[in-house]
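Minutes, project check-in
Item: structure for the 176-residue chain
Input as provided by the requester:
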Amino acid sequence: MGVIGSLAAAALGLLLLFDVVIRGSWAQALLIAPWVLAGVGLIYVITALSSVTTDAEGVTVQNLFRRTRMPWGEVADVALRWQLVFTLVDDRIVRAFGGPAAGRRGSARAERDAELVRDVWKRATAAGAAGGPVRTSWDAAAISVAVGILVWALIAIVSAGSAAQPTFESLTGASR
């Protein structure tokens, strides 16, 4: 659903920018675009970027811009509370914002999805899954896009502020 919501937000954003071009100009669209992109990007980060990915060696949890990679040998428990929660052998807890979540509509599906993750974990540990360091990193690509939009927004603010200031005559059409 997060991807669908992100696509809907992107379509609405494009429609808004198209409207600015039609009613205004390309220059105005370039000044407004970073704000629309920031909104669409925020929706994407909250709804679609956060995720849980499993494989034979471990699980990767992406929460907003932060990514945690846990080998199965380091996972002591997998539980579904409000969201999927991984308890590590050193008692650290990693909560998955983008995984199945209890309390949402379709709670049975969330339980089923959580059970699939538990099954992968149990099979891996039964097969003697290796431990290793739990690695946490930033999502450099997503952060780079966010910084680019922020820089664009700052340029838009400076550009809009440096435009010629309106005069009394230009506003009223009258002369003094």
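Outcome recorded: The chain has a mean pLDDT of 87.
No further action items on this chain.
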